[in-house]
Every structure is written in structure tokens, then in C-alpha cells.
């Protein structure tokens, strides 16, 4: 336990209470989904899920399972609240973001329940910071209803192959077009910007391709401004799974390994901009 | 009025440069006061804007191998100059690996501080880079404006925590609020607090130590009778505090806050 004196008053039951020896395990994941100021936190006995949405078209989820925490307890079946993600991140990184080897910020998180603020206790090098962040009524979240039975095309790529591509996406293009097909070009990313169109092809037998299950040729376009924030998750991850369903909804799942080698997931869901089902480009 | 000085030791030069860099980050112009034994860098009070004011006193013997000064007159053997510390900072940047740095007050077309940096070179002849920094000479009648400030009556005086930690915390707090409350007591505890509708954050520093102040001064009596645990607090503009902390390039052995 990083704290000698437990903060909650004796006899108080907290709806959510958690301890983490290294706050970076949480803050780095949250940064990967930080493209809007507000987020919805949803906690169950299995862990914490933080959801960020924009324009009713895109949703990002960061999953931090209970095993990552040194202590994680949820009193009710589930706990849900809306909170400012910007403020939460500023508090989690109050002692700075540069990670000196050997030093880490210990975190204790407590939430009394509906209407109460989220309490954070952070400690590094003997200095303690106490944060009290007001919570809000959770808003209804989008349900993309994306389950494995509805998946039409799926590939798993090593992230290093996509990182450069995403970092250099032509932002003058309004859309990112993704083509997935059992035939050539197999997996293609395209942009249509001021300078012209750019196509990036990944052959199915490439070293970077870990799994290739494409049943149908699909070409879908997604608003590039909505997908660009996923670059942060891509940068942290070692592998990414790209899936589409019959409607062209896109699911990007990023496998992220933290400093201690534990695995966490971040996923992005996005609605298609238009639906072009022909293979012609 | 004459002034010439020379620094030969690289460690002294680096230390001097870092002090100038810190000053340059605090203000656009400052006053340089030269006496026989000391140099002073002075920033006049900006009480109206709530900014930082500064009094920096350096013993010339700690930095300079040669130091000759002749003031405006025998009875007033001092020189007051107004200069832009950023210019001096930039001139000293070229002196990172210098053999020697000579500083001289000149008046060719207008008063300048001439900084001549002697750089090592492979050939036998020396390479010298010279910077002329324009300065304004402050007339004697205005010297009273720049007297040493007396330490105001304080309630609590405390040593600051590791500046790096304080810098990180204040930087984050700057994103959350415009004002910060600093409170400290005589038991070596200091808190930094911000509070608004959205969030309240308090950082607690312990075991900082309180500097002993000589009790001959009558003004310390308020601190004497003080309850050790009770906090004295001050509310300040966070951007100004962050600027002050961000500029710190000199690693102090001790930093005090009163």
C-alpha cells in the first residue's frame, strides 16, 4: 500500500476504490483516448472502462482491467459517471510526465457514489497531492453493436507497420478510405488531398500481417479528422486489429503493453462516411 | 567612470552565465549596479502588476579574476547601468568553452558593455568574439530608486521543496486555475492549493525546514510567538509563479520562501 494513513474515514464504503503503484499505467492509456474534454467512466468488478465520443460517429474506449491495479473494488454491480478527462489527466500527471527510471507516482482513487466527486491521492517521493474532481451525470453512450459474428473482414497488423502511415496521413484529405479484400490490393489506405491521392498497400503475405481474414471486398470512407486521434493509441500499441462489419462500421483494437509488461486494450469505433461497395477506385 | 573585469575559470563562467540566464527569463530590462566588491542585478518593484521583483547580489571575487571599477565620483564609488539581460545572456552563450571573457565599459558612440570572448583555436593566434551590449547609465539622482529592499514582515519563512517537483506541480495547476494559494507553517510544512468549481487540488510538502532568522531584528517577533502548526497563506497569480519557477537555471543549495 503506497499510503501509510488510509484516507477514507472508517466505516465509509466507497462505490469505487482502487490503488495503483504506478499511475502511468492509467494515465498513458487515458491519453490514448483523450480527444474530447469529457469522458464516461464505467467500473465493474472486472475493471475500469473510460469512453470518449465525438460527433455521434466515433467512440474510443480504454480498458484497464482490475488485475492491473494493486487493489480494485466496486461495491455495487457497476459504477458510472462523467468526468473532465483533461482535468483527470492533469491530476494524474501532477508530478510531471517525464519518467525517471525508478520513480513513479503511486495512486489511490476513491469514489463515494452518485453525486460525489472523484478523489485522487497521488504520492511521489514523499510529496502527496490530493485532488477532488467533480463528476457529472453520465450521458448515453453509442452502441456500435460490434460483435465477432457480424465481422466481415478482419486483419491483425503489427503496429510498427502502420505508425508511420498514420503519422503522415494527408490531412488535407477529408476522408481516409480503407479497402479490405481477399484479392489485391488486400489492404489499402487511401487519401484524396489537395496535392493528389495517396494509396498505401499492405500485401497479405507481408511480415507485418499477423492475421488476414477477408471474405468480401469492402471499401469504406471515414472522416479523417475523427480517426486521426487514434494515432495516439497506435503509437503506444504493439498490435492492432482492424475489423469491419456489413454496414462498414470500423473497429480498431489496439493491444498495449505497459512498463510492467501487462496488456491493456484501447479500441476505436467509427461510422463510415459513405458506403462504396464496389472495388473500383 | 571605468569598469573592466575578466573571468578565466570555466566553472565560474558557467555559474555566472546561468545566473544571467535566470535573470533574462524574469524581465526584459534590469539594473546592474557595480561597487568595488559586488555586482547587483536589480529588478524594480512591479507591485501594480503583481509581478516578480528581484535583488541579486554577487561577490565579484567569486567569479572574476580581475575586477577594476571606478565610480561616478570618489564619494559615490558605484556605477548603475540599465541593460537588457537577454543580450548579455546571448553574448555569454558563445563563451561556453572560452579561455577567458573580458568585460569592459566603453563609450565609443554610446555607452556599451563590451564582452570579449577569447576562444581556443588550433592556430597560434587567438580568436576573439566581441559583443557590444548597449547600456544606459543611470544618473546619481535616481540611485535611490534602487535601494536594497528590506525583507517585509513575514509570518512564516520556509525552505522550498525540490524546485523540479514544485515546477511540475505548478505547471499542471496552471492548466486548472488562474490563482494558486501557497500556505506554510513553522513546522516545515507547505501546501500548494488550487480550487474552483470543477476541481480542487492540494499538494502537501513536509519536512522542509524553516530557516532561523536572527532575533535581533525587532520585526521577527511576530514569527516568534506563532503557533507552529498554523498556516500562513498567500494567493498569487499562477502564471507569474510558473514563469518565476520556469526561469530557474541555477540549482540553489537552498531556496527560501517567506
TrEMBL record, chain A:
Membrane-spanning ranges: none
Gene Ontology annotations of biological process type: DNA damage checkpoint signaling; DNA repair
Principal subcellular localisation of the protein: nucleus
UniProt keyword DNA repair, yes or no: yes
Gene Ontology CC terms, in alphabetical order: checkpoint clamp complex
The keyword Repressor is annotated on this UniProt entry: no
Superkingdom of the source species: Eukaryota
Keywords: DNA damage, DNA repair, Nucleus
Subcellular location: Nucleus
PANTHER family listed in its UniProt record: CELL CYCLE CHECKPOINT PROTEIN RAD1
Subunit structure: Component of the toroidal 9-1-1 (RAD9-RAD1-HUS1) complex, composed of RAD9A, RAD1 and HUS1. The 9-1-1 complex associates with LIG1, POLB, FEN1, RAD17, HDAC1, RPA1 and RPA2. The 9-1-1 complex associates with the RAD17-RFC complex. RAD1 interacts with POLB, FEN1, HUS1, HUS1B, RAD9A and RAD9B. Interacts with DNAJC7. Interacts with RHNO1; interaction is direct.
Function: Component of the 9-1-1 cell-cycle checkpoint response complex that plays a major role in DNA repair. The 9-1-1 complex is recruited to DNA lesion upon damage by the RAD17-replication factor C (RFC) clamp loader complex. Acts then as a sliding clamp platform on DNA for several proteins involved in long-patch base excision repair (LP-BER).
Similarity-based family: Belongs to the rad1 family.
Protein name as it appears in the record: Cell cycle checkpoint protein RAD1
UniProtKB/TrEMBL annotation, chain B:
Subcellular localization, as worded in the UniProt entry: Cytoplasm, Cytosol; Nucleus
Domain of life: Eukaryota
A GO cellular-component term linked to this record: site of double-strand break
GO BP annotations, alphabetical order: double-strand break repair via homologous recombination; meiotic DNA integrity checkpoint signaling; mitotic DNA replication checkpoint signaling; mitotic intra-S DNA damage checkpoint signaling; nucleotide-excision repair; response to radiation; telomere maintenance
Keyword Zinc-finger: no
Protein keywords: Cytoplasm, DNA damage, Nucleus
InterPro entries: DNA_clamp_sf, HUS1, HUS1/Mec3
Pfam families tied to this protein: Hus1
Chief place of localization: cytoplasm
PANTHER family: CHECKPOINT PROTEIN, MITOTIC AND DNA DAMAGE CHECKPOINT PROTEIN HUS1
Role this protein plays: Component of the 9-1-1 cell-cycle checkpoint response complex that plays a major role in DNA repair. The 9-1-1 complex is recruited to DNA lesion upon damage by the RAD17-replication factor C (RFC) clamp loader complex. Acts then as a sliding clamp platform on DNA for several proteins involved in long-patch base excision repair (LP-BER).
Similarity comment text for this entry: Belongs to the HUS1 family.
Subunit structure: Component of the toroidal 9-1-1 (RAD9-RAD1-HUS1) complex, composed of RAD9A, RAD1 and HUS1. The 9-1-1 complex associates with LIG1, POLB, FEN1, RAD17, HDAC1, RPA1 and RPA2. The 9-1-1 complex associates with the RAD17-RFC complex. HUS1 interacts with POLB, HDAC1, FEN1, PCNA and RAD9B. HUS1 does not interact with RAD17. Interacts with DNAJC7.
Protein name per its UniProtKB record: Checkpoint protein HUS1
Organism: Daphoenositta chrysoptera (varied sittella)
Taxonomic classification: Eukaryota, Metazoa, Chordata, Craniata, Vertebrata
Amino acid at each position: 500500500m503506497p499510503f501509510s494513513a488510509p484516507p477514507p474515514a472508517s466505516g465509509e464504503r466507497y462505490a469505487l476504490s482502487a490503488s495503483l503503484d504506478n499511475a502511468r499505467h492509467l494515465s498513458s492509456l487515458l491519453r490514448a483516448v483523450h480527444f474530447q474534454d469529457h469522458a464516461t467512466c464505467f467500473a465493474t468488478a472486472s475493471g475500469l472502462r473510460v469512453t470518449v465520443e465525438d460527433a455521434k460517429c466515433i467512440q474510443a474506449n480504454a480498458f484497464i482491467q482490475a488485475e492491473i491495479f494493486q487493489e480494485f473494488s466496486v461495491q455495487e454491480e457497476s459504477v458510472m459517471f462523467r468526468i473532465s478527462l483533461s482535468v483527470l489527466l492533469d491530476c494524474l500527471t501532477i508530478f510531471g510526465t517525464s519518467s525517471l527510471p525508478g520513480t513513479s507516482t503511486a495512486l489511490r482513487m476513491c469514489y463515494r457514489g452518485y453525486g460525489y466527486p472523484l478523489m485522487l491521492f497521488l504520492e511521489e517521493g514523499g510529496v502527496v497531492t490530493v485532488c477532488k474532481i467533480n463528476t457529472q451525470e453520465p450521458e448515453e453512450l453509442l452502441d456500435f453493436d460490434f460483435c465477432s459474428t457480424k465481422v466481415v473482414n478482419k486483419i491483425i497488423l503489427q503496429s510498427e507497420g502502420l505508425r508511420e502511415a498514420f503519422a503522415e496521413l494527408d490531412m488535407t484529405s477529408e476522408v481516409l478510405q480503407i479497402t479490405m479484400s481477399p484479392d489485391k490490393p488486400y489492404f489499402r489506405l487511401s487519401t484524396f488531398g489537395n496535392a493528389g491521392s495517396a494509396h498505401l498497400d499492405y500485401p497479405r503475405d507481408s511480415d507485418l500481417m499477423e492475421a488476414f481474414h477477408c471474405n468480401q471486398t469492402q471499401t469504406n470512407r471515414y472522416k479523417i479528422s475523427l480517426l486521426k486521434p487514434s494515432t495516439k493509441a497506435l503509437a503506444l500499441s504493439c498490435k492492432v486489429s482492424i475489423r469491419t462489419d456489413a454496414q462498414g462500421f470500423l473497429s480498431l483494437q489496439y493491444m498495449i503493453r505497459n512498463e510492467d509488461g501487462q496488456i491493456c486494450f484501447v479500441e476505436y469505433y467509427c461510422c463510415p462516411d459513405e458506403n462504396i461497395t464496389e472495388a473500383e477506385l | 567612470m571605468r569598469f573592466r573585469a575578466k573571468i578565466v575559470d570555466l566553472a565560474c563562467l558557467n555559474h555566472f552565465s546561468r545566473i544571467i540566464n535566470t535573470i533574462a527569463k524574469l524581465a526584459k530590462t534590469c539594473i546592474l549596479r557595480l561597487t568595488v566588491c559586488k555586482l547587483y542585478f536589480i529588478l524594480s518593484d512591479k507591485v501594480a502588476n503583481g509581478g516578480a521583483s528581484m535583488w541579486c547580489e554577487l561577490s565579484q571575487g567569486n567569479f572574476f579574476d580581475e575586477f577594476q571599477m571606478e565610480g561616478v565620483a570618489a564619494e559615490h564609488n558605484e556605477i548603475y547601468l540599465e541593460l537588457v539581460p537577454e543580450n548579455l545572456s546571448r553574448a555569454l552563450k558563445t563563451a561556453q568553452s572560452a579561455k577567458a571573457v573580458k568585460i569592459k565599459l566603453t563609450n565609443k558612440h554610446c555607452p556599451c558593455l563590451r564582452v570579449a570572448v577569447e576562444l581556443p583555436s588550433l592556430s597560434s593566434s587567438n580568436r576573439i568574439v566581441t559583443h557590444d551590449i548597449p547600456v544606459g547609465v543611470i544618473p546619481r539622482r535616481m540611485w535611490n530608486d534602487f535601494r536594497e529592499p528590506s525583507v517585509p514582515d513575514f509570518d512564516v519563512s520556509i525552505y522550498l521543496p525540490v524546485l523540479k517537483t514544485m515546477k511540475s506541480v505548478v505547471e499542471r495547476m496552471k492548466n486548472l486555475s488562474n490563482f494558486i494559494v501557497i500556505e506554510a507553517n513553522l513546522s516545515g510544512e507547505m501546501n500548494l492549493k488550487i480550487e474552483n468549481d470543477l476541481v480542487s487540488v492540494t499538494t502537501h510538502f513536509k519536512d522542509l525546514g524553516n530557516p532561523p532568522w536572527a532575533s535581533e531584528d525587532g520585526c521577527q517577533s511576530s514569527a516568534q510567538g506563532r503557533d507552529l502548526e498554523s498556516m500562513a497563506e498567500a494567493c498569487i497569480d499562477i502564471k507569474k509563479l510558473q514563469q518565476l519557477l520556469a526561469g530557474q537555471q541555477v540549482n540553489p543549495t537552498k531556496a527560501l520562501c517567506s
